[in-house]
């Protein structure tokens, strides 16, 4: 059986490698941003709860 693309195998593998690294970086960027937003919301909820408890007491 004849190989179709023997001259560009190295370039293809390096391109796929860099593409996967880029996609992993984008994933971790948005994951960290999502975690930061969740942390801020949880802190705000805790502040509101403590203020409400101060008003009640």
Automatic annotation (TrEMBL):
Keywords associated with the record: Membrane, Transmembrane, Transmembrane helix
Membrane-spanning ranges: 12-31
Record's protein name: Uncharacterized protein
UniProt organism field: Jeotgalicoccus saudimassiliensis
């Amino acid at each position: 059986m004849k190989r179709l693309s023997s001259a560009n195998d190295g370039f293809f593998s390096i391109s796929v490698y860099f593409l996967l690294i880029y996609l992993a970086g984008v994933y971790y960027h948005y994951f960290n941003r999502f975690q930061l937003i969740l942390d801020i919301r949880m802190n705000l909820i805790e502040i509101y709860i403590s203020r409400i408890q101060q008003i009640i007491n």
